[in-house]
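User: Could you write out the 3D structure of this protein bound to iron/sulfur cluster? I've included everything you need below.
Assistant: Certainly. Input first, then the structure.
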Amino acid sequence: MWKPTERIKHHPNPGRWPSAEEADESLLFQPIKIGKTILEERSWVPAMVPWRSNEEGLVTDEVIEWYRRFAEGRPGAIVVEATGIRDIPSGPLLRIGHDRYIDGLKKIVDAVRDASGGKTKLFIQIIDFLAMNRRPDPIKYFKRHLKVTENHRVALKAESWSEDEIRDHLLLLADEELSGVLSIRELESLNLGHRDRVTDTELQRINELPEILPQLFSDAAKRAKDAGFDGVELHYAHAYTMASFLSVRNTRADGYGGNKENRARLPLEVYKAVRERVGDNFILGCRFLSEDCIENGNTLEDTCYFGEQFASAGMDFISLSRGGKFEDALQPKVGAAVYPYTGPSGYECMPQFMSDKKGPYGRNVEPANEIRKSIRNAGYDIPVIVAGGIHGYEQAEEILTSGKADIIAMARQSLADPDWFRKVRKGRGKEVRVCKYTNYCEGLDQKHKVVTCQLWDRSDLDIDNVPKTLDGKRRLTAPKWK
Ligand SMILES: Cc1cc2nc3c(=O)[nH]c(=O)nc-3n(C[C@H](O)[C@H](O)[C@H](O)COP(=O)(O)O)c2cc1C
Ligand code: SF4
């Protein structure tokens, strides 16, 4: 992962922990209205893909245990990981693209209700993403994948050469020479692997996205409702299809790109279609980026507008992440896929202990504050959820009391200690296993390996047949809190 050049070591500082009485009176542990329901407290475990599904995208026992363990900590809400809305092979990513997934998803709902005593609300994040290929071996790229065009012939002054001669010649060229012959997209396909973009409207599958996505998202949301979830989070964040529609880099000329009104059009149409399908009582919101954190990406000016638009359309909540884009990702090895959390914007999404002066804790709070202010100024009172390096009670309480956000999301801190919420509520905050923000978990995620936390995955491996990774070296869930 990319790291800021300053490389200052930051140590997590959870600050003072409250007594049970103080926790009881805190804003963090007060209920809050979300849509037509109530969260019992203002805490939230945001979506985290743990790579525990299988090639069919089904809910496995390991997926169920992952969510049961978070529910034992009894946060206000848990959001189930990014789950694919299409019924297409997607590796071990959870899927909701067909009715056959409903029964498995019901088991997550049951486990969370059971483990939290019905206290924790359960949402699922639903995602669409575009096709991409791994970085090719240059020999294969030039011999097979590259479509030889007139532009190549002209650039090489090789009008009369056969296609094979051109391919062989390109293979011998140095990088600087290639940049004078290949287009920017061809160079990208060679160096990073081909990746579809929402602006590739010459491709039918991309051109038709505005026609097909409202139906795909609403079918998926209906399945979530049938499985018993309390609501759905539309994934409009990071490097995926809907965030790409929102992006200022989206120059589509069909009314779905260009100015910010047009870029918000499909996300709003998707929301409307889903709402019509699931009704007003089902909680429906989205996660989007407070800032893209890339050159020529969305800034607060765009995202404050999106926040207002989503609120005025009737969304029940707004959850804010930041960064995590393909555009500045590091070059993958040959045979690997580019990963959107490896560049500076990826760092903004999951900031690490080795940081700049600003540090990794709460980098998304001020941008969230700005978006929340815009939503409030426009007359809407929906909760705004913020994530990013939040691990202490005082830190969380300050964000809430100063009105910078309404609900506190903790991803890595919940992974490090799923009992954070229960411990703090009981006045036993000192027992919290505080996240070190090393991103060991993120390294596993990047390799699509089963995600665990380094603070507990080698502990008590021999006790009670604890479920482990296939190599037997890591336990799959955090030890019980006694
Ligand atoms: C292992 C892992 C998987 C993640 N998967 C998702 C995901 O599926 N969807 C999403 O919106 N964010 C995902 N994130 C980002 C987190 O939800 C969160 O925004 C980010 O980690 C910053 O919050 P934190 O500092 O509390 O960890 C993931 C993060 C981690 C560490
Ligand atoms: S591995 Fe554990 S301690 Fe390290 S960042 Fe992830 S959750 Fe935090």
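Residues 412, 415-416, 435-441, 453-455 surround iron/sulfur cluster (ligand 2) (CB under 6 Å).
User: Perfect, thank you.
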